Amino acid sequence: MSTATAALLLLLAAVPAVFAVTFQVGDTAGWNNGVNYTTWVNGKIFRVGDTLEFKYGPSHSVSVVDKPDYDNCDGSRPTQSFSGGRETKIRLRSVGTMHFLCPTPGHCLGGMKLAVPILAAASPMHSPSPSPSPGNAENARNTASKRVMSYGNIVVTMVLMYGVMR
Ligand SMILES: *[C@@H]1O[C@H](CO)[C@@H](O)[C@H](O)[C@H]1NC(C)=O
Ligand SMILES: [Cu+2]
After folding, report:
1. Atom of ligand 1 at shortest distance to CA of 111?
2. In this structure, is residue 2 part of a structural domain?
3. Is the pTM of this model over 0.85?
4. 73-105 b/e (C-beta count within 10 Å ≥ 16 → b)
5. Residue 130 maps to which CATH number?
6. pLDDT tens digits for 97-140?
7. Which residues line ligand 1 (CB under 6 A)?
């Protein structure tokens, strides 16, 4: 395989990673009581291919629910649920809004509910220029820096792979 071919293959393999972001739900507070997840979502751009990482203690769980159950804090019929773990990673797979709540009694009513609007994956050929509201400039910056970091990862990967192949 020529170096040029190898580089092209690597680039193709790396493209999906360029715009993928892992969001830690609630930032350092994690998935917990006392966090306003509506505020946390505000100003962030979520896309297909991104990942939500829930970090939580044993008193909490993560349930994926539909919108009516989200609205009513009804965790009795989740479409998916995760518990016991110290963290749960959920890949965002389709456009739309995903709804989450903590099924521990009282926790959803206390605010442990999360609605995430998911946009289509960014096209690598048409770089996205998200325009978050000015009040959430800091969130936007965090997201932007993570996207820039994944470019860095790709460069490192390509350099390493090149070294292995030659
Ligand atoms: C969370 O913040 C939003 C505004 O970002 C507000 O409308 C809502 O009432 C807050 N929720 C709680 C439980 O305080
Ligand atoms: Cu909880």
Report:
1. 13
2. no
3. no
4. bbbeebeebbeeeeebebebeeeeebbbbbbbe
5. 2.60.40.420
6. 999 999 999 999 999 999 999 999 987 654 444 444 444 444 44
7. 36, 38-39, 42, 111
